[in-house]
Queue: 2 jobs
Job 1
Amino acid sequence: MTILGTPSFGDDADRGIPDATVARLPVYLRALNGLRDRGVVTCSSNELAELVGVNPAKLRKDLSHLGSYGTRGVGYEVEFLCHQIAREIGQTQDWNVVIVGVGHLGTALSSYQGFSSRGIRVAALVDADPARIGEVVSGIAISAVADLPALVAEHDVAIGVVATPGEAAQTAADSLVDAGITSILNFAPALVTVPDGVQVRQVDLSIELQILAYHEQRKTTHSAAEGVI
Amino acid sequence: MTILGTPSFGDDADRGIPDATVARLPVYLRALNGLRDRGVVTCSSNELAELVGVNPAKLRKDLSHLGSYGTRGVGYEVEFLCHQIAREIGQTQDWNVVIVGVGHLGTALSSYQGFSSRGIRVAALVDADPARIGEVVSGIAISAVADLPALVAEHDVAIGVVATPGEAAQTAADSLVDAGITSILNFAPALVTVPDGVQVRQVDLSIELQILAYHEQRKTTHSAAEGVI
DNA sequence: CGGATTTTGTTACGGCGTTCACAAGCTCGT
DNA sequence: ACGAGCTTGTGAACGCCGTAACAAAATCCG
């Protein structure tokens, strides 16, 4: 039960499951699917935590947000827990997405194995270049941007992926919003603005590298100054 | 000595910047570079915060970790601040990286514009498939995994990128570690283990989509259930 | 049947990150 | 020269997340 301190008044009612937990649930689900495929029936929080590399207490707390689906003294029933997690994060249905921008990145995403194994289906590809329309990539024919509204309606698409160059990202996002998309994942190295009610998540592939570079530099400058650690 | 946890280093001589700040500095830097290219000389925290979409106080606190480089009543000198951020995150030098796995994702990364604009240079491509060795992708000839140590030494590479399928990720990481790499960015949907002293950052492209799907589902189920907390 | 054992669900706590609010300090107009 | 108006830098409060410890519950075994 959610008796937590949040007033659950004012803003958007109850906030549901913490984002940090939502980000881990797919990882748990993948591990559980693996266990189920190997015929494992039940699993303790310790075993599962070891498997995915997190603290057992954290895992139990994460799962407790879904409800009390474990049995004390026994553990969790793998099959049942799979179903509950899948239901919570929306993996009982396939989610259709449309990718805007079929460059290298768009092509990579259209065949990313991490998608298909998690209930995400690339329903359509769109590119601004007229010369590429009709070309088949990863088994999908590229459509024109003008066809977006029709594609969204036809495939019941709720999520759009922007994989264009940075300059075209805003235009791509605008087209997606006009077509009725309410959630956008932006891989372009540029930030986009959208109307209220539309969710955007920004993925900047180079930021992770920058963080690594920062730590690398700290290593070298530190060892040059004083031989710590 | 602190009794609890890991006291990172020990002294105030430790100029360590919080990870959350390090992750934002590249974003600030890109915006500042844009301003400089348009001839803007000074910039207030409010303007810059609006530009990148963060809270002004947060931005000021982030920048304060670098030192007191602003002028009260005026703002920050764009050119100077660019230089300071670049120095702090190691962007004064180019960072050479090697990409293991030249599938769609590896190809996309090898030509990702977000890299070159941030001082990250793809120095070498490596693939496990003998048939692909010698093939030129994004202007770089693919090498064999066995050549990794030589490539790392030749190009002074400190960071390796894993862009293989999930099954090959651990092998790829091992090869990188053996070749002397100390920082790894893993795009494969699988988690890898490395010796102490080697940094790993995991990027799972599908997790972001899962989070969007979760919020989408909450929208629909909420409008259906309505009212119940 | 009752206690030992196992494992969950929860609570308490410490740390980190974000936001607010305000003093300190700079520039400009008069 | 001096006050008015900005803007930075920072101390304090707040909320979120992760960890540890513990009570509740279910099974097993003598």
Job 2
Amino acid sequence: MPNSVPNIVIHRLPFYLRALEMMAENGQVVTSSQELGDRLGISSAQIRKDLSHFGEFGKQGTGYEVDYLRQQLRRILKIEALWGIAIVGAGDLGHALVNYAGFRERNFLVETVFDMDPKKVGTPIGSLKVEDQSQMLQRLKELDIKIAIIAVPARNAQTVAELLIEGGVRAILNYAPITLNVPDEVCIEYIDPVIALQSMTYYLERESMEQKRAVSE
Amino acid sequence: MPNSVPNIVIHRLPFYLRALEMMAENGQVVTSSQELGDRLGISSAQIRKDLSHFGEFGKQGTGYEVDYLRQQLRRILKIEALWGIAIVGAGDLGHALVNYAGFRERNFLVETVFDMDPKKVGTPIGSLKVEDQSQMLQRLKELDIKIAIIAVPARNAQTVAELLIEGGVRAILNYAPITLNVPDEVCIEYIDPVIALQSMTYYLERESMEQKRAVSE
DNA sequence: CTATCCCTGTGTGCTATTTCACAAATCTGT
DNA sequence: ACAGATTTGTGAAATAGCACACAGGGATAG
């Protein structure tokens, strides 16, 4: 593997970028590792060390130029140009994702959405029409899609992932509550709100007298 | 801090639980650290070490009883009984979250949803009605809500978080694309699909001849 | 021009996390 | 009852990640 930058560093860069975008919006011209760190709850040394993996972007005594550092981070993350993405699953979640303006604002364009349910195929979501999942392989190749989001039930997610990969997709964001098995060269990230909630409840106290009853199984 | 178990360990437990739930659904009675690890892409030693923080749950030569380990993990994560949650923001995302069956299936109950837009207040989502955000403080206390999900635009998220905390909320799942400033004793987790996408693009190649144009700023 | 202050980039040591590897416990088949 | 095959729980070793602290470049003010 020719990539020496730790994965955990890469995963922090988008947060730095997000903070910089907000500063830029507010017209701020320069910032410092200290200020960034305070905003993000990270030590300033960590930020400097992370950035040092890629070059020297700051000026001693001054700090970082917001706009310049932002450009550099975009270059590093390869998000200067638009990426097309496909969404699989046109349920409530799929709808919310297709309609989410944040993708476009941050250089991701939802180019197509698929569903396997014949009743959903053809219905419009925003400016798109739901396409038939049986056409997915072909359409992915046509559109040269490299990134996809899985928003189907857990039981179908593995099959969908395999189909996506066969269609040329190299990065998958999986909303289905299941760990997927993918080749090493395919990137995968998971979003599961319940998992996030469950790691917080560990730290909570059960104070309430009347505990709410569990769902019967 | 009386809690010696590393945070990173706590964050893996829900994944173990999720895999166990699936095994239980399939009628599987016993499993092993090896099998769990294979499913989750984690080493078996890691799983054994993680579990050892809390006790001895397996039998040498046999492995773990799926049902027993599942119960234990639920106990450790304090999710044996139902937790009530509040959702703030009744946009597309808020709708999808309120309608998401996965919360209820995994012992979280969406008890209320708020929005600040008078036009949305009173409209039904599933079996709930959108409540006015100005009533939030009072309602949170009435319902004794400890967990909330923020699904409002970034510019309002900090204010909403502060209000939630004042209302007694101790754990926040934030979907707004901004890092929030909260007291140490409040748990916070973030979900931002764009951040997830951006850490994957780093690993992708820009192969396509015709790069898609960036959104003009 | 000089003194002072500010802030980066980084070598170094420290802490946290993961992996290794093995004794002991349990099961299976004969 | 015993040999061989499994699999746990866990010290010890290895690896990874983080924070400290400071030299040195640059800004500022007088």
